[in-house]
Write a structure and sequence with these properties.
354 residues, mainly alpha, two-stranded antiparallel sheet
Length: 354
């Protein structure tokens, strides 16, 4: 079995912890507080990191289109719809049989959410799996397009590759934001996702062909640039809604620097496995797909007894413990079920693992 990257497991674990905490913070009405805004100001790039990681570990996006799409569909779309159905069952059970018609959780349901957000009722974060899937599809399509004709000037030949067009993708994402993100299924963020995917592939080549000491220095410099940009200019990028708050070029530079810099530092230092955070990172899929259902179950149960979670630190603490404990208990069970985990077996007996 191939040895795991403890550096990326640590980063994935931190991303998942932050994501779960974000959704609990929002459910309890603390998202607008100054302390949480500070947390977001230094961690807004975390969802972007998963696209970067996917590119870093991806060996090829070409090959047979049918087999490629079958692979990505099993790994991403099957769990996407499976957990969407489960989430709907939980939510609408409360809406139809438990909550009164005037309950705020009933009034906030809008059918436009289905095709605008890409998530599901009761599990909005599932938008990520659909955007992730579409990013894989787009990079595969691009790999099938022939390169532009070579340019010849005197004794030199310049080959212009189609894949270079991806450099423009972040700007397309920003342009769509200025047009109020008109694409359905939350797909306006896919363009930045494709860019980060290719960035991860390029960074992998740099890591593999550079001395460890040199890479550490370069990575530290990149982290220094990120800190400088974040302190001097600030800004925020919310991937779920493709919202750019601040200077576009500064935010893009910051995301690139921190994605490469943070991963480069940890890879160069060859950190050991961090027990708890590393475990969460290793099994990030289970925590990702199930945590929102747990939050909603707790929230709707409280709402049925006319109890709000807003500004209640006791509920905040209870939810944090419940989410991570239940998700951890679910890991071995969910990962045994392919249509929930995406761990389908290939013909030769290997696993598709997210």
């Amino acid at each position: 079995m191939k040895q795991r990257s403890h550096a990326f497991d640590l980063l994935c674990g931190l991303c998942i912890i932050r994501m779960v905490t974000l959704h609990i913070t929002t459910a309890c009405g603390f998202a607008a507080t100054d302390w949480w805004k500070s947390v977001m100001g230094w961690t807004y790039f975390f969802m972007c990191f998963f696209f970067f990681k996917a590119g870093y570990f991806n060996k090829s996006v070409s090959g047979n289109t049918r087999e490629y799409l079958e692979d990505k569909t099993k790994r991403l779309l099957v769990p996407y719809f499976s957990w969407g159905v489960i989430s709907n069952i939980v939510l609408f059970f409360y809406v139809w049989f438990v909550l009164p018609s005037g309950n705020p959780n009933v009034k906030c349901i809008s059918w436009e959410h289905v095709w605008e957000n890409g998530g599901f009722f009761g599990n909005g974060p599932l938008w990520f799996l659909f955007s992730f899937y579409m990013s894989y599809v787009i990079v595969h399509i691009i790999s099938k397009i022939p390169d532009f004709p070579a340019l010849r000037a005197k004794d030199h030949t310049i080959h212009i590759r189609v894949i270079w067009v991806i450099i423009l993708f972040p700007y397309i994402s920003y342009w769509l934001y200025t047009r109020e993100n008109p694409l359905p299924m939350n797909m306006s963020n896919v363009f930045l996702g494709v860019f980060l995917f290719e960035l991860g592939r390029v960074w992998r080549m740099c890591i593999d062909n550079t001395n460890r000491g040199v890479m550490l220095v370069v990575s530290l410099l990149l982290m220094g640039v990120f800190v400088f940009l974040n302190i001097s200019y600030g800004g925020l990028y919310e991937m779920n809604s493709n919202t750019w708050t601040g200077d576009f070029f500064v935010l893009l530079a910051a995301i690139v620097c921190v994605s490469c810099g943070l991963s480069g530092v940890l890879l160069s230092l060859r950190i050991p496995r961090i027990p708890v955070i590393g475990y969460i990172g290793e099994h990030s899929m289970v925590y990702f797909v199930s945590h929102q259902i747990i939050i909603n179950f707790y929230k709707l149960t409280k709402s049925a007894s006319v109890h709000t979670l807003r500004n209640h630190w006791d509920d905040y603490a209870i939810l944090l413990v419940i989410c991570f404990v239940i998700c951890t208990l679910l890991v071995p069970h969910v990962e045994k079920i392919p249509w929930l985990s995406g761990r389908f077996k290939k013909k030769e007996g290997k696993l598709w693992i997210i």
